[in-house]
Amino acid sequence: MIWRLAPLIGFVLLAVVLAFGIRLSRDRVPGELPSVLIGKPAPEFTLDGLRDGEGPVSSTQFLGKPWLLNVWASWCAGCRVEHPVIEALARRGDITVVGLNWKDERGDALRWLAQFGDPYRAIATDPDNRVALHYGVYGAPETFVIDARGVIRHKFVGPVTERHVQTILLPLLATLREEAGS
């Protein structure tokens, strides 16, 4: 008799698990992915700069003010989608935007910037995934909000949208500026 109820019991259990998953996903903000690095110091790096004559780019040179680390590549379709938003952020002038060119060829990256624009204060190259690995990057684009003390405060996975800027980034930057006293 009980074996006849097994499919029904299995179905009910599956429905409960799916309902729980749907409820959790509704509460998640698009573009926001939990990261074990949130609230921890950003991994320090010093890498070659992408541009001619740029010299080394070091994460420590951006301490003292909040900044964004935007992981991008010329082969990345999502990077093309978010690029106008990143450019608009850089034009605001109240946040330093640093690029991390990831797993890319230098010539391809420079051509991409020439075609679409260069919003970055500095661009570090990470062709071998040495630094991105420490940041937990597994796809481009990804963008990290780092506070004035060098602590990761937020991580965007996928293209940053204008909605993300208005609902998440600008309020967070206002908080970070208050904390930094600027």
From TrEMBL:
Keyword Disulfide bond: yes
GO biological process, one term: cytochrome complex assembly
Ranges of residues in domain Thioredoxin: 36-178
Membrane topology per record: Single-pass membrane protein
One GO MF term attached to the UniProt entry: disulfide oxidoreductase activity
InterPro entries to which the protein is assigned, alphabetical: Periplasmic_diS_OxRdtase_DsbE, Redoxin, Thioredoxin-like_sf, Thioredoxin_domain, Thioredoxin_ResA/DsbE_sf
Keywords: Cytochrome c-type biogenesis, Disulfide bond, Redox-active center
GO cellular component: outer membrane-bounded periplasmic space; plasma membrane
Protein localization: Cell inner membrane
Homology family: Belongs to the thioredoxin family. DsbE subfamily.
Protein name: Cytochrome c biogenesis protein CcmG/thiol:disulfide interchange protein DsbE
